[in-house]
Specification:
Length: about 140
Amino acid sequence: MVDGSRSRGSYRDRHGRGSRQLLLSPLFRTGSRNTSFAQIVNGACEFLQSVYPDELNNLKWQVRDAPKLGPDAVSVTRWSVRHEDMTIIIYRLPIERLGHVRRSDALHERMHIEECVFSAVAKLLGKEPWELMDRD
């Protein structure tokens, strides 16, 4: 019998399985690409705060889509620093789309984002990025 009055819950396909449902709970969803980018930035900043608690106690960070460009702009910055209020600003679009054609997977993407965070924090502290890993 073919009729459109069947409820979705009682419908069975020709293999007897019924309609498909999500395998994961809605509570387990990871969110959008923007969310995961922000999570990587947050994780890197929190890591650096744990390594340098005295120097980065007041560290603030923001994720923005892109910097404002003037008419004479020659390049696009990936991050900026405001020393006066201990803030770094990470620009998502330039990091995701410019300057790293060899990125092949999620791990390399994460490392590229973290590299920008380390560079911004190093600039804020007046250090080189590789000095942030020397905890001695």
